[in-house]
Amino acid sequence: MSHQFALRPRFYELDPYNHVNHTSYLQYFEAARVEALAEVGLGLDVMQRRGFQIVLVELTARFFEPATLHEDLIISTTVAEIGRASSIWSQEIRRGDDRIATLDLRAAFTNLDGRPTRPPPDFAELMGSI
Description:
Elements: E1 3-7, H1 22-39, H2 44-49, E2 52-63, E3 73-82, E4 86-95, E5 98-111, H3 121-128
Antiparallel strand pairs: 1-3, 2-5, 3-4, 4-5
């Protein structure tokens, strides 16, 4: 399954070439992950109350085509694997049939002190629905 998140680039996210700046894509991907988690009942506030957080450990981004102002972009987010104390995510930004960028990342489950920990079973199950 995959979560879909729609977004339109704004003027202040453009570089001098009128393309979306590469750092903005990382913010787009993060916004899509946060929204995907919230939609399955794992909003950041819920995780904090339960004593867990997800922290980024490693990422690989690839850029294929530039996006520009006011284009309709769709960000697909999939949790590809859930391990004992980490997860692997795959994300893609598309403009219609055009692939704009991809992101593959590993994230760790930690307690609020930042120590790696296993998530509760329902937590992993909810993430698996993304």
